[in-house]
């Protein structure tokens, strides 16, 4: 179900369903952002059997990854916001958002509208989008959830290339 965002006197519907899933830049930005910013969560698993020097090296790289993800926060937020507008406002909707430029103009207006409440920033915009992504089951719908879950399982090597054992 969509979320209504009143911006500049117009109600925009934010929804992450078919149109957002077909916008490949959205998937790419989400994957890269989450990949770069979630590493710290699994640090203890990564460094479990390492010495102190190796742990320090891993921590340093994880910090660089997190900071790199934050460097792209504005671009990520606008890309994901744009994808969420496509269902109702893109080519198959009311056609009020047909380009990234349209989305940027809406974000500018959103920032003006929210200057007083302190949510006039890309981080808060991304949080709104991520909440809606969760509410819409976007990761499940796109298959990303399943791919991540199954990606952690050991993939069996195909056996068709091996010779069959003889029964003698």
Describe this structure in words.
With 168 residues, the chain is mainly α. Helix content is 60%, strand content 6%. The protein is built from nine helices and two strands, in the order ββααααααααα. It has helices at residues 18-22, 24-37, 43-46, 52-71, 73-89, 100-113, 122-135, 138-142, 144-151, and strands spanning 3-7, 10-14. It has a two-stranded antiparallel ribbon with strand order 1-2. A hairpin with a 2-residue loop joins β1 and β2 (10-14). It is globular, with a radius of gyration of 21 Å.
For the report, how would you describe the main beta sheet? Answer: 2 strands, antiparallel
In order across it, which strands form the biggest sheet?
A: 1-2
The SSE order reads EEHHHHHHHHH
Beta-strand residue percentage: 5-15%
Give unreliable regions as ranges.
none
Distance between the termini: 63 Å
Helix percent reads 55-70%
Task: Describe this structure in a few short sentences.
The chain is mainly α and 168 residues long.
Fill in the keyword field for this structure.
2 strands; 60% helix; 9 helices; 168 residues; mainly alpha; two-stranded antiparallel sheet
How are the secondary structure elements laid out?
Blueprint: E1 3-7, E2 10-14, H1 18-22, H2 24-37, H3 43-46, H4 52-71, H5 73-89, H6 100-113, H7 122-135, H8 138-142, H9 144-151
Antiparallel strand pairs: 1-2
Helix pairs in contact: 2-4, 2-5, 5-6, 5-7
